[in-house]
Each structure stands twice: as C-alpha cells, then as structure tokens.
Amino acid sequence: MQILITGATGFIGQHLVAALSTEHQLTVISRRRDKAERLFAEQVQVRRLDELNNLDAFDVIINLAGEPIADRYWTTRHKERIAQSRWLLTEALQQKLAVSQPRPRLWLNASAIGFYGQSDANGVNEYSPVAQPDFAHQVCQRWEQLATMAAEHQCRVCLLRLGIVLGKEGGVLQRLLPLYRLGLGSQLGSGKQFISWIAIDDVIAAIQFLLTRHECHGAYNLTTPYPVSQLDFSRQLARSVQRPHWLWTPAWLLRLLLGERAALLINGPAVYPQRLQEAGFTFAFPELSQALHHVLGGAPVTGRTESGPSSANSRD
Ligand SMILES: NC(=O)c1ccc[n+]([C@@H]2O[C@H](COP(=O)([O-])OP(=O)(O)OC[C@H]3O[C@@H](n4cnc5c(N)ncnc54)[C@H](OP(=O)(O)O)[C@@H]3O)[C@@H](O)[C@H]2O)c1
User: Fold this and answer.
1) Which ligand 1 atom minimizes the distance to the CA of 110?
2) How many domains is the chain built from?
3) N or C: at which end does the chain have fewer Cβ atoms within 10 angstroms?
4) CATH assignment of the domain containing 131
5) What's the CA-to-centroid distance between 153 and ligand 1, angstroms?
6) In this structure, which residue's CA is closest to atom 48 in ligand 1?
7) Are residues 151 and 35 part of one domain?
8) What is the pLDDT of residues 62-96, one digit of tens each?
9) Is residue 69 within 6 Å of ligand 1 at its C-beta?
10) Is 47 exposed, middle or buried (0-12, 13-18, 19+ CB in 10 A)?
11) 208 and 231 in one domain?
12) Quick check: 58 and 2 in contact, CB under 8 A?
C-alpha cells in the first residue's frame, strides 16, 4: 500500500516506519526535511505538506504529528501551539483529501486517553462518557472531530486514543529513566491515580491490525488491559533499574511547579482497550513487568501488578 505518515520523525513514527517500510511504500510529511531524510535514508520519500496538492497517490493516511504536550509549561500561548499544531495540519490534510480522486481508503489518527478528561471513574473505555472536560480533552475532541471528516468521503477512520507509550528511545521512559537510575523515583500525590500504559511494540501491532481490519472504525483505546496505579508503576520501574523507591512528591508541590500540567501526573482513570479486544487484538506485552523487561532488557521484574482487568472493562 501507499501510506502517507505525518509525525514520522517522532518516537512512535520512527518505530512505525521501521515496521511498515518492509511491506509498503511510505511517504513522510515533515517540517524538517533534512532530519527526515537523514533518519530514514532510502526507506521513505520525504515531502513538505505544501508540496502535495491532493492525496490521490495514497491508500492510507496515518496522522501522528503534534507539538509535544508535556515538555513545557502550559502558558496560554503554548496551549495554543499544542492544539493548533494538530488541528491545522489535520484540516489541511482534509482539504487535500476533499479534492483527491481516487481518495485514500483509510485514515488512522493519533489521539490520547486525555480525551476522557479528569475522570474519577474506576475504569473507562470507549463507551464511557467524559465526566470533566479539560484542556487535554478539548485538544483531542477537536482533533478527532477533524479526522472523522474523512468518513464523509467514504474513507474508513480509526482514532488511536494512545495511553502512555513505553519504549526506551522516547516518550515518558526516556525522561523517567535517568531519574530512576539516580534513585529518584517517586510516588506522586496519592499514588492511587492510574497509569494507563502500552508497550511501543503493541502500539505498532495495533496500528498494523487496524490497517487490515476493514470492519474496524471509530475510537480505539491503545492501552494495556492491565493499567496500574502510579505507585505500583513507580515501584516496578525503580525495581527494574535496581534502585530503591522511597520518595514521595505531594500533589500541591507538583501543582506549584507544573501548574495546570500537573493534572497529567496526579489524575488519571484506568483506561481499558475494550474495542481493540472486542475486535480480536491480542497484546504481546499486557503486564507491566513483561513490558519493562522487554523494553529495558535485563532481569524480569517480579511481582504481579496491583490491578487486573476491571469490571469496568465491560460495555457501560
Ligand atoms: N508517546 C506517547 O506516550 C503518546 C501518548 C498519547 C498520545 N500521543 C500522541 O501521538 C502522537 C505521536 O507521539 P510521539 O510520542 O511519537 O510524538 P513525538 O515524538 O513528539 O513526535 C511528534 C512529531 O510531530 C511533529 N511535530 C512536533 N511539533 C510539531 C508542531 N508544532 N507542528 C507540527 N508538527 C509537529 C514532529 O515531526 P516533524 O518535525 O518531522 O514535522 C515530531 O516528530 C503525538 O501527537 C502525541 O501527542 C503520544
């Protein structure tokens, strides 16, 4: 298939290109052509968005690009950048889709479990209502709405509501590992908030699964069936790098240091991949201990995770 990918130079995108380039012809849209060409060499064609008049040449669009959400303080200006980086690119792609003939058959769009807002629910899945919409919800909701416009052109749309993606080369582990290796792993706030995570290998496998399942459309949570509490996550990560775990960072301090962004760390419902499992997807790394062992190498982390699949894992 001819596949167009945005955000391919990022953490998930690089894994995806490596996995798809053996079977498909890939074109990458990047703001940094030199970097993309250096990264991918002969594997892909690199284009700037303004070089494409339409999307005639592509069977599939995979839209991942967006300003990182957790890297900087959320000033009004930066929040605007986080939102607009996703919305404007998606709108521009939709305009090109509307004038395409033939049109792509499939649109896979990144989103995030931030879609569910600040839910206190024990567990949420794709059928759950959004209790308290916040900034992350607003970004994801509009992003998903724009992506779903492709369905008006008989294009199948799947929305990838990503949890915290675990891989060594990027995402949250790249930031946490140096701290944990110094023994600075910490319980955050009550530690009872959930970390709904997924191994990078399962993200790529889920995308490949959705690529070929013509009956699949709509929102899919890309999260493990076994989310864990933040305290459990933190303890297991510390154990996996053979360091002690004794620090506690109170929620008020996180709010003081990080402002509104602290919500990403001190709130979080358990999010379950109900629709992926209903569709028949199986996870290679469902348990945190397995995933950390796979991602980090070394001795397996023993000890079962605190939380198994929840009763909320059924249709609400
Ligand atoms: N990793 C996670 O744990 C996670 C969790 C939930 C959701 N997600 C979402 O999944 C998507 C991919 O995640 P990732 O971890 O691979 O992201 P990433 O490593 O930050 O890469 C995102 C890519 O988006 C492009 N980009 C960055 N800032 C941009 C801007 N201001 N305007 C337009 N494009 C911009 C860049 O590509 P170019 O420089 O080549 O243009 C970059 O390589 C993101 O949208 C992210 O929000 C990720």
Assistant:
1) 10
2) 2
3) C
4) 3.40.50.720
5) 26
6) 162
7) yes
8) 999 999 998 888 999 999 999 999 999 999 999 99
9) yes
10) middle
11) no
12) yes
